[in-house]
Queue: 2 jobs
Job 1
Amino acid sequence: MSEIHLRSPRGWINDPNGFIYYQGKYHLFYQHFPYAPRWGRMHWGHAVSEDLTDWKHLEMALFPSKPADCDGCFSGSAVEKDGRLWLFYTGVRYESPDPENTNCCLNGEFVSSQLSLCSEDGETFDNFGGKRTVIPPIEDPAIGDLRNTRDPKVWKESDGRYYMVLGSTAGEKGRLLFYRSDDLERWEYANSVSAENYGWMWECPDYFRAGDAGVLLFSPMGTEYGNQAVCTFAEFSVGDASMRMGKRFRFLDYGMDLYAPQSTVDAEGRRVVIAWLRMPEAPDGRRIGMFCIPRVCEAENGHIYFRPHPNIRGKLSREIAAPNPAEQVFRLCTSLEENEELCVGGYVIGRKNGRIFADRSAVVNGHTEVLGRSETPPLHDGFAVEAYVDRNIVEVFVNDGEYVITHAVYGLTEEVRAELRAGIHYFAAQ
Ligand code: FRU
């Protein structure tokens, strides 16, 4: 079976980290607990790909080795400078380790610092001699939180300087902190931004330009929808490092399984986003966590699109008559009329009340804590569906990425039912 989705090589994985196109290869690091299929003291796993479709796992990149990160190397990002690869991440030290499982701490009592590690070649990481603390734990509550300040995303701006955005919290509101640096080594606090009524802590912020528009992705915790990744328009001003955020936030993905998206720029200059699929159980009992396919983020007519990356489309381009969802990775394309639906291996995609919905109730192993059925907001301009079906993930792109519904699934069957006016096309790998 051809794998287009990056899966955990062992144990547990969560957020994508340090996603970058560096010296002719895509590097994707990820939050990793290698010893068991559950979250614990974090490491950074590492995979590389030539084309974003086939991934090769490499050695562990980061692991705890210093007082500042002795209990975990939390999420962060990568940036290239003078041919070297710089990683920025959050080092965590537990104040109250859980006596029953010292890989975790009690009551969120841990201290956070921001660290860097510079690699000469993107493959060797000196965990003993190369780590530097660039931002010590924040002691001033007017700036940020000693514990909940994390996930540095670093980028180079038009003024030639480097900026870092961190997720944080203050006064029970989520907050973003901005730092800046001339050389990636010395960082100064520059500014912050927050918003009313949108969760108490903002994780994994990522700011970038998509064409003429500024886009912000982040993962707020504790909203009325729980912890869900969102996107919004935002404008960052280099002069005072301030950010104006749009008033409307919308979900990155309407399946509500994706979290902690991170972006980079691909070899052709496209903005590409990848995110962690939160899975309710390990498919084989041993390895849990995987990523969605890379998506190209584009802003058009006041809307943020997430489109399948052309390399993935290209990989799944051999037209086949009928797929077998129990055994095959494939893509399907169609357009739905009102009240039409199709069923792939027990997973139902349909159109009702002017929206596209996807229902995994029959293929989620009885897990009721995750959403069975998800739908897009009302659609006004077409009902085109392009779905990517793999044995544990289905990704439904509506109107070429106007909205996306992604679900973790288990036990897809061989059955395919689709009697649609527009017909349906299936594509598999060569
Ligand atoms: C998001 C997150 C990040 C943190 C990491 C720890 O899923 O909680 O904020 O850095 O995971 O694994």
Job 2
Amino acid sequence: MTDTYDYYKETLQTLRERGDLRRLPDVEHTGRRITASGRTMLNLSSNDYLGLATDTVLQQEFLDGVGGEDRLLSSSSSRLLTGNFTACTGLEHLLAGLFRREAALVFSSGYHMNTGILPALTDAHTLILADKLVHASIIDGIRLSAARCIRFRHQDYAQLERLLEQYHGQYPRIFIVTESIFSMDGDIAPLARLVELKRRYPGVMLYVDEAHAIGVRGRTGLGIAEEQDCIGGVDLLCGTFGKALASVGAYVVCDEVIRQFLINRMRTLIFTTALPPLNVAWTRYVVERLAGMTDRRERLADISTLLREAIRSSGMDCVSDSHIIPYIIGASPDAMLKADALQRHGFYVLPVRPPTVPEGTSRLRFSLTADMERPEIDELVRCLRDDAKNGDGI
Ligand code: PMP
């Protein structure tokens, strides 16, 4: 007789044999360092790009000054009921002002944002044209929407243009969907070019996820759209607070009509408890200081250039143009071995495997933060160079 759970056991066994089994790592954090399996290592796998999550001085300053309802640890309700605190509407006004857009709307997480916006704004008369490598949360949003979706080859804008040419007469609304800094390859979409492209066709809107760029890029830290001077041309300019901003939640800046529509139709906004006021007040505190964090952005840019150039000069391909730097290995078991070897050298790097990345492109993903020091990167580069010389000898 078969056990009810046989299917699950067998599937897990297959994943284990392929080297693709996932587990929740047991880790302890001490500032920039992480302790796992008895080893204390430099954390090269976090999204704390500006080093704010480990900045206890900044956090204490915030906690010393926070008062009133901003101290609450729960909103106890959806924003459409009693959970709409002034911390949240204040943050939205702040964001709209900084981006110089009509409106902003805050969500509980980037996952809520990406699984909620497209299903709300699209219907069977909508076409979604999404970059092949957009994040899983965007894919899930597309799956939940009634729209037809075509995924164009990664950053193949000639193909995108052909699709727009072919379909613009057939659909009253078309969404182009992309990330700005891609989460697994660290390469960057030419947003200004996409704005120019979408303006050539009626009914085309641009949806951009800046999760990995907000705080990190642009003169005042507003992301790649600021860097490429096209904020006003992106219909839905989205980002998250859980990475460089060291908080939790997400936002879109957009026109007021879109904000109103989302408040009426977006299920992941309507049917979930709003973020705790304390978290939102912290996000606002960080966003207010973002423009003044140029030093951190420059330091991050410098060490990122160092690592990218070292990888390239060792003969490896590196498509990254940011602080997210993949080191492609290929097979999952090899990626696991390499990650383990680097961990033994004091660098906490994790293998990224399918289904997060395409089959055969398992990799190490270096995710740099502004508080890393040059000698640490030099040592990492030395380990990688030795590896390139000696095969698996990291
Ligand atoms: N968008 C992108 C591009 C992401 O990489 C992620 C998370 N890694 C998300 C959205 C989800 O954001 P959150 O963690 O806030 O749910």
